[in-house]
Amino acid sequence: MKKGKSLRAEGITQTCTELEVTIDADTVEEVLKAVLEEMEEDKDIKNIIVKLCDELAKQDLDGFDDIDAEDVYEEFQDACKAARKNAKYVADSDFELVMTLYVDNKGNVRGRTIEYDDGYDSFKVEISNPHKGSSFGYKAAVSVEGQEIAVEGSGKDSSGTVDGEFAVKYNGTGMVDIVVKKFDTDSLKKGYLNGEFTVKASSGINRALGMASGTSLAGEAASVMSILTDMEITLDVSMNGSSNKLVLGLAADDEKWGSISLSADRKAGKKASVPSAKNTIFVEDEDDFEDYWDTIEWDSFLKKLDKSDLPSDIVDIVEEIAELDADEIMDEMDDILWDLMYNMY
To answer: φ, ψ for residue 274 (rounded to 5)?
Structure first.
């Protein structure tokens, strides 16, 4: 324990007490054994397994019509016993995980870091939320092998209502900007989301254009990204348990395109209706996708797009996609995925 340590984030500094805890291989083994022992005898887990098996037995599925819930539960218990015996092999003998907490003078946890580094593999999870009066700074980041994804920002916290500006960053480069207004953190603790959130692409997201380079969709990707950087999406959410409302707004170059409003009230439930087979499409593999692709009536769809207010750039992209067959679409997707993996590693 160290007193008088400074916690910083986005220009806000707060003096805290630093608490450091080290978790080694022996600790991991004991914790894992304790959890597995609880799981082995937990009645709720048993009930879940039994109910799941009963439901599977009712379905017309090969191999599940004669499933026995008691046998499955006994196999689960045996697996827990076996895992307990092998718990000592989960972590290497030199395993060491360091967790650091930053606590203010009122007992609030304002920061937390978890670090692991054995010389070969390393990762760090960091959450910093220092306060100075009603002002606060915020950073939540995950770093793996020197690559960092973070959410950073600052704002005001007035009696549980937060207003602020944040950015999602990759290795320090802003990718997405988020403006938060009237975000009720107290209701969030009860499971209800309330507030207004505006999301817009940062200029740094243009680097993602390189991921699709070398494919015939590169030009289309550039056009889409150019449009996206000028667009912003606003979510206005109101929830209290008995009624919920969400308004989704879309704007470009400060000009509002339109909005969609969704609302739901908690009332007596009704029996759900399952779509008829003729109106339902199941896509499980490439063959299913090809069969579905051939059924799309592109001419009718494109005529409707021409009559809409969508930007011509988007309509042009859809027209080019419509000229491709299913095999070409799958090939393009493979190329893009390989480019994504290449740029990541």
So the answer is: -95, 135
